[in-house]
Description:
Blueprint (H helix, E strand, L loop, with lengths): L1 H12 L2 H16 L7 H45 L1
Amino acid sequence: MFKNAYTKAKSLSSSAYAKAGVATSLSLMSLGAHAALSAEEQAAADAITLKINDLLAMAWSIVPIVVVGFIGIKLFKKSSNAAT
């Protein structure tokens, strides 16, 4: 009985889902371990967060252009190969 439980636990520990679950739970537990920031540190963290959000917004304005470009190239290749 215990050997079977040990075998199941051992196979679970090698599973990618189990490893992801452990990593997720450890990261969630560490969220409460952070100390309070001073006003200057909080302002710096807010400025960095704002800058990252601005960069992500700029990237999402470029992504559709790139995707449409790749789709256009693929369709052009397909139609040019079909014409020959």
